[in-house]
Amino acid sequence: MINRIHPYVETADVDASRRFYTEIFGLTVAMETPVMALQSPDLSSAQVIVCRRGTETPQPDFGIDVGDAEAVDRAHAQARERGCRIVYPLTTEPWGVRRFFVSDPDGTTVNVLAHVGT
């Protein structure tokens, strides 16, 4: 089950990006570390992830939250079976996210993730 799909925006000025998305679109800050997650107050799955330039290497183009760690592991196994290029290894991050980055056929980098707690 997919919980949400969200784009990543790379910025040199996180505060300016925060003001832009909150003041113009009414998004609220849901998370600030290690990246800033902004979401709709009406639909928590409608999000934009703002990263300070250089925070993520490689920088994903968008993320797909697949719901739980087991689903991340299954997606990783499927991607490897199909010979997809894994551009960031399967990892449980210290901030409570299990994820990996995979390159789609055209080179778009997808962050496949699930929140697993800390």
Automatic annotation (TrEMBL):
Per UniProt, the keywords (alphabetical) are:
Dioxygenase, Oxidoreductase
Q: Which residues form the signal peptide?
A: none
Q: Which residues form the VOC domain?
A: 1-115
Which domain of life, per UniProt?
Answer: Bacteria
The molecular function GO annotations come to: dioxygenase activity
- Which PROSITE patterns does this one have? VOC (PS51819)
Q: Name the InterPro entries on file.
A: Glyas_Bleomycin-R_OHBP_Dase (IPR029068), Glyas_Fos-R_dOase_dom (IPR004360), VOC_core (IPR037523)
What protein am I looking at?
Glyoxalase/bleomycin resistance protein/dioxygenase
| Organism encoding this protein | Conexibacter woesei (strain DSM 14684 / CCUG 47730 / CIP 108061 / JCM 11494 / NBRC 100937 / ID131577)
Kindly list the organism's lineage.
Bacteria, Bacillati, Actinomycetota, Thermoleophilia, Solirubrobacterales
